[in-house]
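Box 3.1 — From sequence to structure: CYP97A1
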Amino acid sequence: MDTSALFVQKPGHISGQPVHRKKPAGLSQRSRRLQTSQGRQERLVVAAIGSEGKDKAKLKLGENLDDRIMSGEFSDVGSTKERLTRPLRKLLAQDPIGPGRVLALALARVGQRWRTAAARRMPVARGDIREIIGQPVFIPLFKLYQVYGGIFKLSFGPKNFVVVSDPQITKQILLTNAGAHSKGLLSEILDFVMGTGLIPADGQIWRSRRRAIVPSLHKKYIAAMVELFGDCALRGTAVLERAAAEGKAVEMENFFSRFALDIIGKAVFNYEFDSLTTDDPVIQAVYTTLREAEYRSTAFIPYWNIKPLLYLVPRQRRCLEALQIISDTLDELIAKCKRLVEEEDEEFVEEFLSQADPSILHFLVASGEEITSKQLRDDLMTLLIAGHETTAAVLTWTFSCIADRPDVVARIREEVDRVIGDRKPGIEDIRNLRFTARCIAESQRLYPQPPVLIRRSLEPDTLAGFEIQEGQDIFIATWNLHRSPQLWDRPDEFDPDRFGPLEGPAPNEVTEDFKYLPFGGGKRKCIGDQFAIFESVTALAMLVRRFDFAFAPDAPPVSMTTGATIHTTNGLWLCPKPRADLEEVRQREAAAAQGGNSAAAVAHEEPAAAGAASSAGGCPLQTAAAAAAAVSASFWAAWGWADGSWM
Ligand code: HEM
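Predicted structure (token representation):
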């Protein structure tokens, strides 16, 4: 089945259905564009998954929350006991004879002690759960952060969460006292899909799986993957060229989701989803499962824990069927991989990379480690989910950030023309695509994926002087850290230069001292960080080199919806057009190449040829391995991985 119709449509139509337009009455196209260029924050509207049409009510809720925060209603300031006994104290103090006044004095002393004790308690924001649901949870958390500061307790009836938005407290939880925290709620939510995979796992299982999986992402593997990224970007280019020729808009979130799925399928278990051009039940099953994981992470009543409901509720039945399809597919791939490993009989050495199948699965099977099929399936599913939606979201929001920034696009182009021209980037080239990489880093600041990290304390602890009990659920509000006016100058502005000179180190949680967490930090830091950065830089460079992108004229405003990552509510509709001066630039490059300038040598690789190469058997590994071998230690040092922190 041809899938291009799923994300390429005439502007104003999504999947063949007329778009439910939400443009406010009286807001002309021109004023909408003005809003866009003047401040992204202004045009963001928040909404919840699957609840279109209720936006008005939700916005009211949001406004209501603002009013209530400002009125101090949420606050538990001072001591309640002291407040309640105050009228009595005042009454006793009026006693003309004496005993009342003595009692009033005693009460005042006790009240003072109560007030001092209250001052040591963490600020508490109490609320009605309806204030939070119905919008991406990080939006009300940001508003509450502005009132209560870097650490406060959010309390709903019997449930409460400590919300952390302070870099130093974050550092303590993720780095210096990481052992005292587990994934808590997250493990419970993700159990049905990831089991004891690396993201939800804790304790000994986490340690042994991290030790087994991290070595598979070695330098030769990453170099092979950079080849794969380029091949997939060329396939994406072909899709965009078709849309441009037909004058159609493209829903970029869907496009990047398929782009990232194709890559992660090959990279993790050598499966050709080919979702940019086809659709099949396995792809549908992956999406059903992903949506269910997001649904469960934002739903408040875990009814799926009641076994019979898994079979009675249609969405749960569909999810079970999808899980079965994926499980069967993974079992087949694991069996195939085991046969291949037996046949090839290659010695397993450090930085092992199979020529026929460079996937992580192949590395794990070839390592000979005794591991159950269930654990292997959990590992693969975890990597599939961790590496797919996150990267797709990063690319989607990056394109949203640059679509109305011709100044930024011009700088990316200047860099790409100079460094790679029409070539696919090799691993060394990425070192020189520094401004392009900064655009990805800045988009990750504005739209962190995921916007909130979840932990649970395993033992009593003290955070910023406040006592934390064992079992306390904690949210690290990455969105708050990344958007804090106290931590960043012009926090809502897309400014790729904010991280300092391009020659300096790539920004990460260490360079920014935990106010910036694009990939988490400490021992649970993302293991796919350089994989994801290289993938995103390759896609951004190759697509911006070839196309101009503009917001589709009749498309709905770009708005946010949250799941595990930040999605758009109605898509990101862009119109790709072939870059106006591309031929001119190519001629200049060709002339320079003929003139002996080898740096500008251009090898025009056309999408069809690249697609054929990739479907014929994947990456040109020899080239990749040679490239990896040639990559100097200083390259990895420049990206901050020389200390082995990427492992
Ligand atoms: C731009 C893309 C990506 C982003 C933004 C991202 C972000 C993150 C973040 C923030 C964490 C830390 C979660 C926490 O502390 O609770 C994490 C963990 C993780 N990521 Fe990524 N990730 C990306 C791509 C990838 C890729 C491509 C892979 C695999 C190939 C991957 C695999 C993992 C795994 C396995 C963990 C769990 C590590 C552990 O707990 O030991 N991620 N990621």
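Summary of the box: Residues 198-199, 210, 382-383, 386-387, 390-391, 394, 449, 453, 518-520, 524, 526-528, 531-532 surround protoporphyrin IX containing FE (CB under 6 Å).
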